[in-house]
Specification:
41% of the residues lie in helices and 14% in strands. It is of the alpha+beta class. The protein has a domain at 2-113: Sandwich (Lipoxygenase-1), CATH 2.60.60. The structure holds the ligand CC/C=C\C[C@@H](/C=C/C=C\C/C=C\C/C=C\C/C=C\CCC(=O)O)OO and fe (ii) ion (FE2). The ligand CC/C=C\C[C@@H](/C=C/C=C\C/C=C\C/C=C\C/C=C\CCC(=O)O)OO binds next to α2, α6, α8 and α18.
């Protein structure tokens, strides 16, 4: 018995309130009581009321709530219920029941109090029963589907409309996304009209469409894209810093033609000096090129060799556009000393190839699709009261919807890849399949990946430096939360939901990825922390590193052509006509500009890394861990700002204030 003050907190997004009435129960260890209220929750409001309860409820464990509609169902977004307990001769006690979900229909929803997982063994099985019922319902809502064979599984949803309401964009996000889509459609139409009667036979003609959404750096790209140091810089700190690696030997595919022995000597000297680097696009070899409006497109599988200069500049030394083969046992090598248009076209082929592997491997597969596997497995295996659910859920916001939209608009039949990209038309799916077969756990963990690629400690590798710093900061945050909940390794080993989550990711979502280093169980807190750190890093920092740069590096189309309309050159005699016949046409270039702007622009409702408002945990312990996380991020922010001040090209993509807390675009 005692007096209770109850606070009902409603979400702040549009339509979060409800005209339906809400009924509440307090459920204690010894009894439960219906509060007899009929509340109409209002958007953004916290509504308090007090009740005297005659029964002895015992320690509160749940709040149950139900929305009652007379005529019209009106969904309600409940943030949380907070209860203050006034008991005789005891100071007031605050108990929080997190929700952060839509309440639809008229079913009863059970909200465990925030520390339930820690006391689950003393609750006469009440929490266990709740967890089982919750996961049963979630497994019905969140199903797996194989969208295309040979790539990670996705959420079962033909379009975003099929997703559960809790996975959908909130109104503000949806309106913004649709508005910019309309802007994009309009922009493409206007550019087509504007260029209908104009020429398209010089590189400067791309200026005719170089308006609309673009950044200051995009304007710099337009001026500097032909420069070799600007070209090389992008493999270190551009939109795709994932392919560059330090050479440990001359690649076997690099067949040196007779008469170019001095090139071989230069390469070997740079190798000996430890400053030879390479980017190998062999993954593209043999991929079927797209046919766009009846016009066959073309693909290459380049190898690029670069040298790291003492001043930190990375300069291209040689480009081989195709693998040696029976029809071309000694493919031509293109050099900086070649005629300028020849060398420019060879570099354009490298950047077109980089566009393919960036968008499909680094961006879609290694961030979006990985995050989707984490999201579906989390919803299917971890109950809301589980500490790893609480840790991860803020980093999974909106991901299922943006990925579903990508599958229906970008990489679908007739989508933008089919309309304007030379791996479109089905080749893009083969690239995804090949990339999936070489997707290792190590490649998703920067300390391992950058060590394997020889990029640790390289002064001008700003992505590498910032990625390792962020990994360490996120790792400390994860360890802080894990150590509050798993007091020893045995607790990890004996947590059935956690072990099921691990298996569901590796064996189901990633289609038996244990052969590529992914775990099928966690044997220690360290193993758990490493994996969860990888999840959060992938969903936040890594996506920021490979998504934001689309606006900067892809809107000046010649810097990263989305398609190539003629075969790669086999001689050094390249004319401007050949270059312009190869580069994307007006329509393809307009699509590239618009999509790059749409996907790379700053999201208006973005939540910066570590600054989500939802409070899934309560108490001083978790709050101190989150505070430390935010402090560490702020320290890194200041470090990066200070470093960037001395740079001609500041590296901004891993500035914590620019990293979104989840993959939403
Ligand atoms: C290869 C894709 C890489 C990563 C996925 C990407 C997510 C994209 C998700 C949705 C984008 C879908 C469509 C774009 C929407 C509008 C574009 C604007 C205008 C297009 C004109 C038109 O609609 O005809 O990560 O960011
Ligand atoms: Fe993205």
């Amino acid at each position: 018995m005692g007096r209770y003050r109850v606070r009902v907190a409603t979400g702040n997004s549009a339509f979060s309130g409800s005209n339906n009435q809400v009924q509440l129960w307090l459920v204690g260890l010894r009894a439960e009581v219906e509060l007899g209220l009929r509340l109409r929750p209002a958007r953004g409001q916290m509504e308090d009321f007090e009740v005297d309860v005659s029964e002895d409820l015992g320690p509160l464990q749940f709040v149950k709530l139900r929305k009652i509609h007379l005529l019209i169902k009106d969904a309600w977004f409940c943030n949380h219920i907070t209860v203050w307990v006034f008991e005789q001769s005891m100071e007031e006690k605050e108990i929080v029941f997190p929700c952060y979900r839509w309440v639809e229909g008229d079913g009863i929803i059970c909200l465990p109090e925030t520390t339930a997982w820690m006391i689950r063994n003393e609750s006469q099985g009440l929490f266990q029963k709740h967890q089982e019922e919750e996961l049963k319902a979630r497994r019905t809502l969140y199903g797996w589907v194989s969208w295309k064979k040979g790539i990670p599984l996705s959420v079962a949803a033909a379009s975003e409309k099929d997703l559960p309401l809790d996975a959908r964009f909130h109104e503000e996000k949806k309106v913004d996304f649709e508005r910019t889509r309309v802007v994009g459609v309009t922009e493409i139409a206007l550019k087509r009209l504007y260029t209908l009667l104009s020429s398209w036979n010089s590189l400067e003609d791309f200026d005719q469409i170089f308006w609309g959404g673009k950044s200051a750096l995009a304007k710099r790209v337009r001026l500097s894209w032909k420069d070799d140091d600007f070209f090389g810089y992008q493999f270190l700190n551009g939109v795709n810093p994932t392919l560059l690696r330090k050479s440990s030997s001359l690649p076997t595919r690099l067949v040196i033609p007779p008469g170019t022995e001095d090139l071989k000597a230069q390469l070997e000297r740079k190798l000996q000096e430890g400053c030879l680097f390479e980017v190998d696009f062999s993954l593209l070899a043999g991929i079927q090129a797209n046919v766009i409006q009846g016009e066959r497109q073309h693909l290459a599988a380049p190898l690029l060799m670069l040298k790291m200069e003492p001043d930190g500049k990375l300069l291209p030394m040689v480009i081989q556009l195709q693998l040696p083969g029976s029809d071309s046992p000694v493919p031509p090598l293109f050099l900086p000393s070649d005629p300028s248009l020849t060398w420019l076209l060879a570099k354009a082929w490298v950047k077109n190839s980089d566009f393919q592997l960036h968008e499909l491997q680094a961006h879609l597969l290694k961030t979006h699709l990985m995050a989707e596997v984490f999201a579906v497995a989390t919803m299917r295996c971890l109950p809301g009261m589980h500490p790893i659910f609480k840790l991860l859920i803020p980093h999974l916001r909106y991901t299922l919807e943006i990925n579903t939209r990508a599958r229906t608009k970008l990489i679908s039949n007739g989508g933008f890849f089919d309309q304007a990209v030379n791996t479109g038309g089905g080749g893009h799916l083969d690239v995804l399949r090949r990339a999936t077969t070489c997707l290792t756990y190590r490649s998703l963990c920067p300390p391992d990946d950058l060590a394997d690629r020889g990029l640790l400690g390289v002064p001008s590798a700003f992505y590498a430096h910032d990625a390792v710093r962020l990994w360490d900061i996120i790792s400390r945050y994860v360890q802080g939360i894990v150590q509050l909940h798993y007091l020893e390794d045995e607790v990890v080993r004996s947590d059935p939901e956690l072990q099921a989550w691990c298996r569901e990711i590796t064996e189901i979502g990633l289609c038996k990825a244990q052969e590529r280093g992914f775990p099928v169980s966690f044997q220690s807190r360290d193993e758990l922390c490493h994996f969860v750190t990888m999840c959060i890093f992938t969903c936040t920092a890594q996506h920021s590193a490979v998504n934001q740069g689309q606006l900067d590096w892809y809107t000046w189309v010649p810097n990263a052509p989305c398609t190539m309309r003629q075969p790669p050159p086999t001689t050094k005699d390249v004319t401007l006509e050949m270059v312009m016949a190869t580069m994307p046409n007006v329509h393809q270039a307009c699509i590239q500009m618009t999509i790059s702007w749409h996907l790379g622009r700053f999201q208006p409702d973005m939540v910066p890394l570590g600054h989500h408002k939802e409070q899934y945990f309560s108490g001083p312990g978790p709050q101190a861990v989150l505070n430390r996380f935010q402090e560490d991020l702020y320290t890194l922010e200041r470090e990066i700002v200070a470093r960037n001040e001395s740079l001609d090209l500041p590296y901004e993509y891993l500035k914590p204030s620019r990293i979104e807390n989840s993959i939403t675009i």
